Amino acid sequence: MRVLNFGSVNIDHVYAVDHLARAGETLASHAYRRHAGGKGFNQSVALARAGAAVCHAGLLGPDGASLLDRLRQEGVDTAWVKAVEVPTGHAMIQVDRGGENAIVLFPGANRAIGPDFVAEVLGHFGPGDWLVLQNEVSGVGEMIEEAARRGLTVVFNAAPFTPEVLALPLERVRFLVVNETESAALSGQVNPEEAVVALLGRFPGTAVVLTLGREGVLYGDANGAMREPARAVECVDATGAGDTFLGFFLVELLRGADVRRALRVGCDAAALCVTRPGAADSIPRRDEVLNAFPEE
């Protein structure tokens, strides 16, 4: 059983600010950091640190060699990461004193993925393997269709949300991971419980995982729904928290845990993540999570 993360790789430029910039405002930052990032990159790191054997597939530009090295250092198989003559994706991230963030994303090489590359990569995976996707790369629809045809379990994180998500074959997705904004856009329902019910009605074979930030997570599938609260911690930087949750949640399921246990470990990992600055750099390892929040 292997986990293939077909996802984005970015260079993150992070600016510490007193408040998130308003329209027309020029705002000075009081700190600057550069990190490896992208939802795909972050989720591969989270999966690896949670204990999965993970392969990352994607594209990066001539300026992305350090990101490839970093994935390898994390123990991620990078055989399906290729270099192209398009700049590596990057993000400009503002983080305020309360840890909230605002992100401007340039997709770069992440949007240069075509059907031939999708077919080439997925041709090496099959039944029993899992495919993790986000909406920061091109070709997501083809990836979902091809993976489902080959018998992979498909996990789709509908972030960042775009109108194109509405046309994706989400009925072929086993786990649909959304936040409140994304769930409302997909379901037409603002209330989280009503959104989950609506999404399950449209996609009855799909489990819906709705992350709620400080309120934890709401999960629903054909057997019912459950909530798992978040730990009360001091938030330093929320960047990467959702990616951390997803990686640890999935790995617990792969280990054979029940959904409740997987949700708890995912929330605990995200809680540790937000107490640290950065995205991938802030993701904890599984032993840290279990030691920080021992079972009661």
Give the topology string: H per helix, E per strand.
EEEHEHEEEHEHEEHHEEEHHH
- Structural class based on helices, strands and sheet pairing: alpha/beta
| Quaternary structure | single chain
Can you give the helix content as a percent range? Answer: 25-40%
Average pLDDT rating: 94
Label the overall shape: globular
Distance from N terminus to C terminus (CA atoms, Å) equals 31 Å
In DSSP terms (H or I, runs of 4 or more residues), the helix count works out at 9
List low-confidence stretches. none
Gyration radius from CA atoms, angstroms? 18 Å
Beta-strand content bin: 25-35%
Strand order of the largest sheet: 5-4-1-8-9-10-11-12-13
The count of DSSP E runs of length 2 or more, i.e. the number of strands, is 13
Q: Characterize the biggest β-sheet.
A: 9 strands, mixed
Task: Please give a structural write-up.
- This protein is α/β, with parallel strands linked by helices.
- It has helices at residues 39-50, 65-73, 115-122, 140-149, 180-187, 192-202, 241-254, 259-274, 286-292; strands at 3-6, 10-16, 31-37, 54-60, 77-83, 89-95, 101-106, 130-134, 153-157, 175-179, 207-211, 217-221, 224-228.
